[in-house]
Known about the structure:
Elements: E1 9-15, H1 20-26, H2 32-40, E2 42-47, H3 54-63, H4 67-70, E3 76-78, E4 86-88, H5 99-105, E5 110-113, E6 126-129, E7 142-143, H6 147-155, H7 170-194, E8 199-204, H8 206-218, H9 234-250, E9 258-263, E10 267-270, E11 273-276, H10 277-283, E12 311-314, E13 319-323, H11 339-351, E14 364-366, H12 368-371, E15 382-385, E16 391-394, E17 403-404, E18 414-417, E19 419-425, E20 433-434, E21 438-439, H13 443-450
Parallel strand pairs: 1-8, 1-9, 2-20, 2-21, 5-6, 5-8, 11-16
Antiparallel strand pairs: 2-19, 3-4, 6-7, 9-19, 10-18, 11-17, 12-13, 13-15, 14-15
Helix pairs in contact: 7-8, 7-9, 8-9
Amino acid sequence: MDQTDRPEKLLVIGLDCAPPALVFDAFRDDIPNLAALMDSGMWGPLRSCNPPITVPAWAVMTTGKSPGRLGVYGFRNRVDYSYGRLAVADGTFIKEDRVWDILSRLDRKVVVLGVPQTYPPKWVNGSLVAGFLAPDTNSNYTFPIPLKMEIKNQVGEYLIDVKNFRTDDKDYLIKQINDMTDRRFALAQYLVKNKPWEFFMMVEMGPDRMHHGLWKHCDPKHPQHDPASPYKNALREYYMRLDKHIGALLDCVDRRKTAVMVVSDHGAKSMIGGVCINEWLMEQGYLVLKHKPVKQMKFDESLVDWPRTRAWASGGYYARVFINVEGREPQGIVPGSEYESFRDELAQRIKSIPDHTGRAMNTRADKPQDVYSQVRGVPPDLFVYFDDLNWRSVGSVGTGAIYTFENDTGPDDANHDWNGIFIASGPGIEKRGHTPQMSIIDVAPTMLSLLGAPAPQDMQGGSML
């Protein structure tokens, strides 16, 4: 990139869970500010990481390192090979430099707002407001700490996330998401105008909460869609609101000197139902409980007869399957010499699970060692994506069935999808229009390239410019 083309500043707007199908197609005529960015720059689908989930996807995007390198495989991760020690993967789990860490050391000013896995806050050369894993605004969720009071004076009660977003009260949900989004963008405008910065990155969680809460009301292809739903336009109206906020934020910067990116960590799609993975493992004799549950209950390690159990799993938008390995787990029974053959057998059998009608599903069962060049921490033995993410994984036991159409963690209409969005416009960015498949691992080096900062050699991606 020619030095004269390089922007002085980079503004990154993250929209958690924003999918290409809505932003690039269904809603494009209703979101003129995002459409203008597309028309003046480059845009296209952004392939997420494996697994395509908020934690670790935003950390992958901002470090240029894979989940295997980060050692983070979901919101809750095994701390060791014991059965019960799980920890929420907050910012302390991210040991690799993120873009703003690199820029801060180069004495470049940064502002970071709402990016996941930034709590507890660490020093930056500027300002940081932690993402949704911060417990509440009573915590020290900002750097520097006095920024807390500044935020309260500017936007009132700042909403880190929507409480109880898995609810049947959709009017409550929509109001809470709108309030959160309004205040986040009000704060973004304040920080853009009042804090020094060369790199500014914010993430809005609202799209994710809207998709999970209201997808079936808006998508005619969802198996539970009601065309008469009073919420059938809820997603479109929310994206129109988002677009107005984005336009107002863009009006706060000098577009001649500022490059703009709009990105998402993964996409979204209709969720048909859930596969009760632990029920299936029990049915096949891989998982044995001490007592048969008389009702549906959350999986708990204390329920398991470990000396008779070869595998168990956790639920979520994807399944994480764990093998009870002799010498690795406290009461492991699968000999190390049989580990790979057993893992292959388990993967093949899981991939053969049909849907509720007997139809074959397009299920993936990935080994971490086949996905990542480095594997740190304590990964699952298999990542399972049922029917290419058309179905989620349900970890509860006592459901009495392999298939369910009620989510065990509360109402949820959407699963994650592999592709998020990437839009870039402004100085230093060619007007390429639609750009074929890009990768989330390449975003961090692209950010650094735009600002003329060298990317560390151990970043696994490369600049897309």
